[in-house]
Amino acid sequence: MSKNLFAPFCLLALAFALSACDKSAAKAPETPLTKVRTETLQAKPLAITSELSGRIAAPRIAEVRARVAGVVMQRVFKEGHDVKQGDVLFRIDPAPFKADLDSAQANLSKAEANAFQARLQEQRYSQLVEGNAISGQDYDNARANLRQTNAEVAANKAAVERAKLNLGYATVTAPISGRIGRALVTEGALVGQNEATPLAIIQQLDPIHADLTQSIRELNDLRRAFRAGSLKQVGQDQAKATLIQDDGSLYPLPGKLLFSDISVDPGTGQIILRSEFPNPDLDLLPGSFVRVRLEQAVDKQGLSVPQRAITRDSAGIPMVLLLDAEQTVSQQPVELGAVIEDRWIVSSGLKPGDRIVVEGLQHARPGEKVEVDDSPASGQPVKE
């Protein structure tokens, strides 16, 4: 009899439990959609930049050399300081050159005296030959002697000028303005004997050049794009250059592209591009390795996306998350170009009007719907 009483109680308890489960399930909230922020892409002119490596080079380099042979008596300049064109750098013993000048001037005086005597003789003979007092041959000899003495005067004048030049060359001056390095000779050194070592080296440092290298393949790709009309070429005078310093910071003064070389290095397949930068504080020194961001073209209908909108798959292919009209997420591979500030230039894979996810990528999944929150406070991260 107890078994018959227990069975109804079990059925009643089971029914009560099922009813409670139904009510609990009915009250359970739906899973909230992931919130994201988006950006609708718009085409606009974008500068196409290339980040090239190279080295700093001085625009002008002058080796200071002695133009006459002699012994260095004095170094006048301060090593490592700026000099101006014409500043005195070294003094060579002038005594031999003063003696040469005195000798040349004495020879000139002697030649002028001989020429004066020959001129008087020619004048007398010109009168005598008219009266047949002398032969025509004697008169011709007098005229020839006058010409010879005049030539000797001219030669001795040239010797005097050459001696003056040599005396002037005993004072070695700066051929250009710039910064001079250390002296490569000391007082007492014999110079001007066709030695290989210069006295010092002067380099112009402001403005300064950055010689960059670019592969001919990249340059040809740009040229083909110019011919196709997809890119607009930037004139050399308008091509902006931004120098990236060794710590990754940007050099504060903008530069410009001067020219591209006309020959390709057969060993590397690269071409030289020369840019120029102001260098008033001499922060850029010759020989330094630098990277330069160079604007070489303009894409009139360019697209760019924020860097934070880019993800990469396991193969390293860059991807963006697209939204369709139903707010459904899909994954789209893209091809990226250069970086402008905090945005990637997109070479292919997107078109104007596409809507991409820029915040909330971590929880958005392809094929799922999301909730778009493009409120003005888009600078704040989305709470997920």
Describe this structure in words.
β18 (311-312) and β19 form a beta hairpin. The chain has four domains: 34-43 and 303-372, conserved putative lor/sdh protein from methanococcus maripaludis s2 fold (Beta Barrel), CATH 2.40.420; 49-59 and 208-301, Elongation Factor Tu (Ef-tu), domain 3 (Beta Barrel); 61-90 and 177-203, OB fold (Dihydrolipoamide Acetyltransferase, E2P), CATH 2.40.50.100; 94-169, Helix Hairpins (Orthogonal Bundle). It is built from four helices and 24 strands. It has helices at 2-27, 95-130, 136-169, 216-228, and strands at 34-40, 44-57, 61-64, 70-75, 82-83, 88-92, 171-173, 178-180, 190-191, 200-203, 208-215, 232-233, 240-244, 255-260, 270-277, 289-302, 304-306, 311-312, 318-323, 329-333, 335-340, 343-348, 355-359, 370-372. The strands form five sheets. Strands 1, 18, 19, 20, 23 and 24 form a six-stranded mixed beta sheet that branches. The protein has a six-stranded antiparallel beta barrel with strand order 2-11-15-14-13-16. A four-stranded antiparallel beta sheet has the order 3-10-8-5, with no helix packed on it. The two termini are 60 Å apart. By secondary structure, it is of the alpha+beta class.
Q: Compute the separation of the termini in Å.
A: 60 Å
Please name the CATH topology of the largest domain. Answer: Elongation Factor Tu (Ef-tu), domain 3
CATH class descriptor name of the largest domain: Mainly Beta
Strand segment tally: 24
CATH superfamily of the largest domain, called what? Answer: Efflux pump adaptor protein, beta barrel domain
Largest sheet: 6 strands, mixed
CA gyration radius, whole angstroms = 44 Å
- Morphology call: elongated
The proportion of residues in beta strands is 25-35%
Query: How many discrete structural domains?
Result: 4
Main location: membrane
InterPro entries: MdtA-like_b-barrel (IPR058626), MdtA-like_BSH (IPR058625), MdtA-like_C (IPR058627), MdtA-like_HH (IPR058624), RND_pump_MFP (IPR006143)
Protein name: Efflux transporter periplasmic adaptor subunit
Coiled coil: 101-159
